[in-house]
Amino acid sequence: MRLQEFWSRLDSQFGPMRAHSVARDHVFAALGGRSAIDAIDAGVAVRKVWLAICEEYEVPAKER
């Protein structure tokens, strides 16, 4: 998954304003206690970050 696709899916799922808050402000245990943005900056695969968000927010499987 490319970063552009990540942001597109995040915006689509949460709306543009909330998407940035989810990525910046929420700390995910599955990402080592980091935010999505911090995890991506640390080199975690974008797909893994997306799936962690999906698990935490119970995004339906068909939208993952």
Provide a concise account of the structure shown.
The chain is mainly α and 64 residues long. The protein contains 4 helices and no strands.
Report on this structure.
This protein is mostly helical. Helices cover 61% and strands 0% of the residues. The protein is built from four helices and no strands. The chain is globular. The termini are close together.
- Give the amount of beta strand, in percent: under 5%
Kindly name the structural category. Answer: mainly alpha
Got a strand count?
0
Report the mean per-residue pLDDT as an integer. 96
Helix content: 55-70%
Cα distance spanning the termini: 11 Å
Task: Figure out the total of helices.
Answer: 4
Poorly predicted runs of 5 or more residues: none
Q: If you compute it from the alpha carbons, what radius of gyration comes out, rounded to the nearest whole angstrom?
A: 10 Å
Shape: globular
Give the helices and strands as they follow along the chain. Answer: HHHH
Key descriptive features of the protein:
globular; 4 helices; mainly alpha
Strands, helices and their partners?
Elements: H1 3-14, H2 16-25, H3 36-41, H4 46-56
